[in-house]
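Both lines are retained for reference:
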Amino acid sequence: MKASFQQEAARSGAVATPKLRSAIALIYDQQTQLPLYAKNPDTLAPIASITKLMTAMVVLDAQLPMDEEIRIESADIDRLKGTKSRLRVGMTLTRGELLKLALMASENRAAAALARAYPGGYDAAIAAMNAKAVELGMQDTRFLDPTGLSSDNVSTAHDLVRMVAAAREYALIHQYTTSASHSVPGRRGREMRFVNTNPLVRSASWDIGVSKTGYISEAGRCLVMEATINERPVIIVLLDSWGKRTRIGDANRIKKWMESAEAHGHAAHRS
């Protein structure tokens, strides 16, 4: 399947365009089930917080009550990268709120708490994530933690297309990853507002079904999306973008390309 994936991309003539700056990129047409563009689609790379889509899927697969309250514990603190969090130890949020913050705002303590509260605990959650990857046919994917802070959480663009397609089937993942913002109770009754890490969800020109960003130094800046562009449902995978705006710039370049006459010609070539 991998060979045909790359061969189809090469035959399409789309590999040279659009001009993307991400080191790894894939645009996958969900209607034809073929790539429109491929750049290093089978290169193994750290995926950072893209991981949280898998964390969310296994939590939802377990059919756990979304209104169950979960306390943030010291075990949820990031001691690997030392990232900060607005979710202080001792705070209590519902599973649903933690899921939304993990997906929308990429909150690491939220994702860690979800894994810790998984049936069987943290290790069982990681095992479920890897089992789900196998189930989805993600042959080159491995998860060691639920947040993506570990650079040993690795995948390929090819595999991530499968993961994003699966994630799109979950109504809550669609809802939470495309929400612009969410507020939770903070100290002294004040609300804490969290915003989506992908600014494109706030753009009226985008029709996004699933969105997830990611960043650690080893992975660069990452972005995966399921979106409808020019009436075509596509999955976009962008990995290892080093500039702060590169992944968003690449997404907009993809949109512009797909809306152009060049992309129309490519669609005709495929039919």
Observations:
- The radius of gyration is 18 Å.
- Residues 1-10, 12-16, 267-271 have pLDDT under 50 and may be disordered.
